[in-house]
Amino acid sequence: MKTITELEEIRKRTLEKIKPGTNSNRLRILVGMATCGIAAGARPVMNAFIEELKKRNISDVTVTMTGCIGACRLEPIVEVIDSDGRRVTYVKMTEEKAARVVVEHIVNGRVCVDYTIGEAERKTAEG
Amino acid sequence: MQIYRAHVLICGGTGCTSSGSENVKKEFEEQLKKHHLENEVQIVGTGCFGLCARGPVVVVYPEGAMYTMVRVEDVEEIVTEHLLKGRMVRRLLAGGQEAGDVTQSLDKVDFFKKQLRIALRNCGIINPEDIDEYIAFDGYKALTKVLTEMTPEQVIDTVKRSGLRGRGGAGFPTGLKWEFAARQQNETKYVCCNADEGDPGAFMDRSVLEGDPHSVIEAMIIAGYAIGAHQGFIYVRAEYPIAVKRLEIAIGQAKEYGLLGKNILGTGFAFDLELRLGAGAFVCGEETALMTSIEGHRGEPRPRPPFPAVKGLWGKPTILNNVETFANIPRIILNGAEWFAGIGTERSKGTKVFAMGGKINNTGLLEVPMGTTLREVIYDIGGGIPGGKKFKAAQTGGPSGGCIPASHIDTPIEYDTLVQLGSMMGSGGLIVMDEDTCMVDIARYFLDFTVDESCGKCPPCRIGTKRMLEILERITGGKGEEGDIEKLETLAKNIKASALCALGQSAPNPVLSTLRYFRDEYEAHVKEKRCPAGVCKAMMKYVINADSCKSCGICAKNCPVGAIEGEKKVPYRIDQDKCIKCGTCMEKCPFKAIFKNV
């Protein structure tokens, strides 16, 4: 059984752990894995991220599943959060796109603009 | 062959050579030797990477890190930091491609900017299978506060003052419900969570359970403390396998942490939680039927009173709240009743989650403060209607609700205004319809659903809705008779007055509300045998315009039933007896010579 103090310790410890910025956790990658995400193919996308990171010996990035963010039509959605809390939201992800995001964004710090939500919205608007 | 753990690719193209890549390469060779890495790291001279403007370019594998404008002085840092210690030299990475004005993150797009997320606060933020992450975002903090600083009366008072009303449909004040149950003198009481989300198109409860299961668990423990219950049940449909799995994981983790069970957080309070899977019957979302199902019987409603707060599960006082209602509770406790009551309108406090679907650009899940207008939801958040079509109506409340016509698009969305308009909040399904929607057909669709899902216990619902459906099928089938509309109205009124449970009583709503705002469409169907929207197949036909037909024969080739005939230089014709009105010909015609005749 946990006491209230222990609960508070877990809170602090986990916040520290999931907050990107520490050396062991530079970026946090969130993959939407609710029913909508999984149906759209989020599982292979998440595996692709894990594989690509492993292949490149990158250990300072965490990959985590999360729930539905609401924009189900754009699933699979992947968010990359950096140490300043800046979020980049990639939409309609595939395994191939995941590989490119790892090498360009995760490794080289170059956001793959054409996969981002803004670009997807712009394309939709243009029809 | 020697195997290297890392490779350093140095560009030897003309561009990089002229910006000094030769010297960089020499420096790498020296530095590797100096740090005794020459047997682990291989240097490779490569051709042009195409980034000549930012040369010399160096790429380090396996990571694939691309360093640009590398000077001789930078080499030692790359070797000692990256190759020796495995830390990339961020300042030298290619980085910073100009993003221009493209919005890169979700929280900055219009779809999100107007939202206020309370029930969905953690969805898409935390890992739902890790209790620690929930705790990190102030999870179980409300429970701690309740168990250590508040009396059950204070908890109920806070919920009452917050103005929170049930999010499952009817909008009964949650605090009042808790108070009724708390007043009952009984050693055994129960807390139930209604996760039997049955409205077609509604999936906010699933989303909360999948994205933030602990928020519901925490709220149920709080409810247990408030009313004096020590056992809870979550009734969730088996068609939500991911939600069920995450709930199981969450309950397991909460038990492991002693947040469920005996002596929670060392305070002496005991509460346990079990899952009950439903088979997906719509009626089991009705509270008395749900409880009957938990007890192990066939899910059928019973008359109220007695209300569940007095006599619920196994005859004991029981409170039943919807998933979204529970998801609000921890925040209300933490931020206070005043904070919550400050959001929304006079009689509807807080926010509401909507599952928006139909003819709308941004389908999905959204949470807005009560009182947000339909226009804001549809145009600002929803991004408007696709294809520039006109907005015709919005259906809220699923099979129990009704349609709100375009003339009321500026109505603020709250419990009472929706009821005044002949619809209801329901669980929050929001189906947007454009000008191509036939309102009679919509009413028929919902009645079809109700007839399918009627449990059959009471005749008004079992027989009455069936008769209504038959009339609607007749009308949409082009065989409507004089007096059908009046018959529908009489039946609807009687079913509303006499059905046993809320589902039966509200079943005629889709018909009544469409009759109220779109009576002319019903009349066109019955009197003129015409479907103005061109949806009802019996009353429309596809016709080839002889003037624009170029006799190419593409329509005939694509017709699945061979209903189109013609020959060269003579316009083609559709045999209306054979035509199944699939619309393929119209879609395929390159000259737009085929049109719907309504």
Question: Would you kindly provide a written description of the structure presented here, covering whatever features stand out?
Answer:
The complex is a heterodimer of chains A (127) and B (598). Chain A has helices spanning 4-18, 35-39, 42-55, 95-107, 117-126; strands spanning 27-32, 61-66, 78-81, 87-90. Chain A is of the alpha+beta class and 127 residues long. In chain B, the strands form five sheets. A five-stranded mixed β-sheet of chain B has the order 10-9-13-11-12. Chain B has a four-stranded mixed β-sheet with strand order 2-1-3-4, covered by helices on one side. A four-stranded parallel β-sheet of chain B has the order 7-6-5-8, sandwiched between helices. Chain B folds into five domains: 6-112, Glutaredoxin (3-Layer(aba) Sandwich), CATH 3.40.30; 131-340, 3-Layer(aba) Sandwich (Rossmann fold); 351-434, Ubiquitin-like (UB roll); 439-527, NADH-ubiquinone oxidoreductase 51kDa subunit, iron-sulphur binding domain (de novo design (two linked rop proteins), Up-down Bundle), CATH 1.20.1440.230; 540-597, Alpha-Beta Plaits (2-Layer Sandwich). At the A-B interface, helix 1, strand 2, strand 4 and helix 5 of A face helix 5, helix 6, helix 9 and strand 10 of B.
Structural features:
A: alpha+beta; Glutaredoxin; 4-stranded mixed sheet; globular; B: Glutaredoxin; Rossmann fold; Ubiquitin-like (UB roll); 5-stranded mixed sheet; 17 strands; flat
What is this entry, summarized?
Chain A is of the alpha+beta class and 127 residues long. Helix content of chain A is 45%, strand content 16%.
What is the element layout, followed by pairings?
The complex is a heterodimer of chains A (127) and B (598).
Chain A: H1 4-18, E1 27-32, H2 35-39, H3 42-55, E2 61-66, E3 78-81, E4 87-90, H4 95-107, H5 117-126
Parallel strand pairs in A: 1-2
Antiparallel strand pairs in A: 1-3, 3-4
Chain B: E1 6-11, H1 14-18, H2 21-34, E2 41-46, E3 58-61, E4 65-67, H3 72-85, H4 110-113, H5 131-136, H6 141-149, H7 152-162, H8 174-183, E5 190-195, H9 204-211, H10 213-227, E6 231-237, H11 241-256, E7 272-278, H12 287-294, E8 318-322, H13 323-335, H14 337-341, E9 351-358, E10 364-369, H15 374-381, E11 391-396, E12 402-405, H16 415-420, E13 429-434, H17 439-453, H18 459-476, H19 484-498, H20 502-506, H21 509-527, E14 541-544, H22 554-558, E15 564-567, E16 570-574, H23 584-588, E17 594-597
Parallel strand pairs in B: 1-2, 5-6, 5-8, 6-7, 9-13
Antiparallel strand pairs in B: 1-3, 3-4, 9-10, 11-12, 11-13, 14-17, 15-16
Helix pairs in contact in B: 2-3, 6-10, 6-13, 7-8, 7-10, 9-10, 9-11, 10-13, 17-18, 17-21, 18-19, 19-21
